[in-house]
């Protein structure tokens, strides 16, 4: 062990005190200056390898009482070369003779600086115009500070690497295609990368004032997803991610993201990642819409329609067809009123087919066939989980009819609370799904039909007056068959042509007596009733001429007329009531099906129900 004498100690002390507060570049400068001043040598420097191992650059260079900046030099032909090979070198004098490039330098002392693994990083050196005799204390102090300088150089290298890797990480974080957000437990943003800002419509300045949950819309479906997302954080990361629905901060547009989040080790922050899946979700929605449309169209294909054919030449029908042609060219709402079976649906289809919307769908809703609790969601659709039983999202008939026509049959059956929404939708031309909050714009023409006296329903407060006038912009009335008995031969021919081939019969026409009988009948069930009678007559026919006897006309209905005629005091309603009751009792109150009362009465089950309500007919007991 080398004993420390007092002069060594004072040098040591001076350098230690001079460099105590400094780190990094400052430390190097303070080291060379203090070392020179404490040892009395004029010049000194710390240098590290430049890019090539044959060159060095100074980290600090002290010369004749001043610092020189950014010195760089080639090693060959200098005393430094040997030092950087890893050797301690001391030339007490004669440097300029040994190294002709180093004119004016007399003496040199250099020591390599190594990293932890022994690799040379640079060197610390002193040089002078005076000789530098060998002094133990000088070497000793010099070596101590060389290892201190090496440690600092090492640290600077690591710091630099750390800075680079942090910068690389930041760039990666910022430019990653996946969105990253660093947020606190209340989802207040601390940091968000470019992808996150882009997806969420948030600017860099808005990051500190943004809270993730405030971007989730206040709909039952979106909030349920949010709860699911937080539950997945509690459980640990869900590898499949959770789908969340958000609104962009800038324009409020909906975005859907697949979201993963994890609590950081401190437990105070969330590291959240997400990707934008809006395009995928919109495609799924479009697909669902097409599926729904497909399902609806399948049903429609099954139902039979006489598309173009509205048969008849009577003045009453001609006037109706004339109005149909005129109103078809416009987008006006049409209300078709008429008795059951007079062809209201046929007229609605004719308006659609003659309109500019004919390439788009005509969607029908029979309001009497739906339980009142489901009408709203059938019309407007619903979001997943909007009410008990709503498992999947459903697209409503208004959405299906986009660009086309919506035909609301038996509109008088719509409950009052849905009438309010319908009115608003027709006025504002936009609606929301049940349980949803996103307004959906629509371009749909509305045609409605009813066999009720709607104005009477308005007077009875069963139908909103404002909605009535909205729907009744262009009223049409389908005449009952008894007011156009002259159309019966034409209709009968048309119907024979329709049914006979299907039933495999060859029928020429209707016998003269039968035709007279048909034209004397008063047709409470209108054309639907005529259809049924002709179809039945074809089934029963033995020859090419149809014979329709009085017994083939529904005797019971004929009774109504005779009863009504025979008993002037009895109102038609009372007679109808008695008759319906009688048929219901015969069918044991079965309404639908081949043995049901509706079939016997030649009316639709929905119409029968409606009449029962109107005439206050209830099943006893
Ligand atoms: N002028 C017509 N020419 C040919 N067929 C007709 C005519 N009018 C109605 N029909 C036929 O009569 C049947 C009943 O017509 P539609 O369903 O349109 O009547 P509706 O008034 O809508 O009845 P409801 O009020 O009971 O719904 C249908 O099969 C239809 O094709």
From TrEMBL:
It comes from the Bacteria. GO terms for biological process: regulation of DNA-templated transcription. GO terms for molecular function: ATP binding; sequence-specific DNA binding. Keywords: ATP-binding, DNA-binding, Nucleotide-binding, Transcription, Transcription regulation. Transmembrane segments: none annotated. Pfam families: AAA_lid_14 (PF25601), GAF (PF01590), HTH_8 (PF02954), PAS_8 (PF13188), Sigma54_activat (PF00158). InterPro entries: AAA+_ATPase, AAA_lid_NorR, GAF, GAF-like_dom_sf, HTH_Fis, P-loop_NTPase, PAS, PAS-like_dom_sf. NCBIfam families: sensory_box. PANTHER family: DNA-BINDING TRANSCRIPTIONAL ACTIVATOR HYFR-RELATED (PTHR32071:SF123), TRANSCRIPTIONAL REGULATORY PROTEIN (PTHR32071). This is Fis family transcriptional regulator.
